[in-house]
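[job 0412] stage=fold_complex status=start
inputs:
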Amino acid sequence: MNSRERVLAMLDARAIDCLPAMPITMMFAADQIGARYYDYATNCRVQAEGQLRVAEKFGVDHVSVISDPGCEAADLGAVIKFFPDQPPAIDEENALLKDKTLLARLKPPDPLGGGRMTNRVQAVRMLRERASKDKLVEGWIEGPCGESADLRGINRLMLDFYDDPEFVRELMDFVVQMELCFAQAQIEAGVDIMGIGDPASSLVSPRFYNEFVFANQKKMIDGIHALGARVRLHICGDTRHIAEGLGRVGADIVDQDALAPLDHARRKMGLQPVLLGNIDPVRVLREGTPETITTAIAECHRQAGPRYIVGAGCEVVRDTPEANMHALVRYAREHKPSETRVASGR
Amino acid sequence: MSTLDELKEVIINGNAPAAKRLTEAALNQGTRPGDFFAGAIIPAMDEVGRRMRECEFFIPEVLIAARAARASTEILKPLLAGDSSVRPAGTVVCGTIKGDLHDIGKNIVAMMLEGAGFRIVDLGVDVGPEKLVDAVRREGADFVALSALLTTTMVNMKGAIEALIAAGLRQQVKVMVGGAPVTESWAQSIGADGYGKDAPAAVELARRFIAEAARGMSAARRGAA
Ligand code: B12
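[job 0412] stage=fold_complex status=done
writing structure:
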């Protein structure tokens, strides 16, 4: 069973040789090939190289095109600050939609129009060519709340929920339409599973999540399914208060951060969604030892039950010891989904 | 319900226009500017902090409440300037540390401290040691509140504290640090005076520092006598 088959079998609840492992790597991957992060985020060749290195060296089951949340915003004309060896950052003070009225004139960029989105589509194509015989290819788009925050400025968006709900609805409508177009281009280039990152959705109340975010996440997910790809929904931060919705929204994989325990997620979401994660990327994965990591992952596995994929709560951070990354994947290789209580200390 | 009680309610509920209106009404009824803090604004923001801890309030609710509190303090500030009987509880220079652009947490900390009666000098994000030292000196700060959300930037907090030492300002200020990756033990290891896990904790820390300073002063006075 190769990596790709393994993940797909897990998603389809078919028999499987061992657990899949799908940790998010970005800066870690760039460092692995000695590339500066600027190059990793802006040059598909460098990114593909880094992803292939991580997948081969550590045995991670997927390769991904995630890099930073600024791809779509950049192509829409937002001011992005670039750094030599850090992720590009959106200039929030001068956010594209600082003036709300500009939304009416905004047009979704052409994902093949030669901008940062095109670079990502090309990265998908390269990974498809070079890895898909063995690895699962993962695309990436931003979720409705996250991308709205990127375009409007997150501090402003948080107030808009109260001040101008109609604007928030229109903005999220626009975002869903744009992201589905971007998703389609990536799927046509060869994506098996689409990652959706929606970090800002953990910052709002259950009421606002249900009123504004849920339906838009669902529209995105249903749209991606209709285009023939699976969905991994990743949300940073503490999501306990919106867990119930995350369980119903239709993602094949719910990938949550270390702040939200998997037993809580399982209770709220039922047995269907595959849970991915979620050891603390810093306190456990970077600062722990192979032994403490094995124990922590075993605990996640126990809490999640058999429908589980090994990973960290969020991006594997820079300077994570290689032995720790090996330990993470080793747990997956040495355990079948049903072997949940074996907390071997190897 | 008294006007101040009503003011407290509308601040908690984030109604800035009502906060403005009620502040003006209470002033017209003869409430002294200095009485708004203990009578409405501070208890309101304490309640907001409590609801945040209990997960009744999330970021939007906290931000609109803080905005309502500000609608009231904006009116009061010029009136307080001439009143020597009411002094701010102290001056806090705050900011997000060098290399870090996350500011939601820092903004909430600043707003809660402001609600608790402190004077705030907000340096924004990506604050380097020079900028910090300049502000502490210029503003005669009593407290420094630094925020970091990235493991890669929290190390810069150490540099900020070292810069305060080098500038001879470390004795003048109490330094508190916070942000998701920051811990109590990290705060101790870099020589900060305190760590707070959330915005209410920042207020508790600042109040504790003041209480300690007061005890220290009376002890010193007793010592001298
Ligand atoms: C919003 C957000 C962003 C926004 C920030 C917008 C803004 N204006 O702030 C944007 C999109 C710009 C962003 C960018 C990045 N982010 Co970000 N972001 C977040 C997110 C989703 C929320 C953070 C937040 O605001 N929380 C809410 C506030 C209220 O909480 P808080 O800041 O912790 O503050 C509270 C307490 O900590 C405390 N506190 C805070 N400061 C202080 C100070 C004192 C003195 C005291 C006493 C208390 C105190 O009180 C506050 C209120 O109770 C988190 C994930 C999450 N959901 O937590 C990731 C997260 C912080 N980001 C992360 C990363 C990696 C990044 C990027 C590098 C991403 C990338 N690859 O592009 C960039 C870096 C940009 C930069 N140079 O700073 C990681 C950090 C990982 C790590 N440990 O290093 C996180 C944890 C996500 C994750 N799990 O990976 N991000």
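[job 0412] summary: The CA atoms of residues 12 and 111 of chain B lie 13 Å apart.
[job 0412] exit 0
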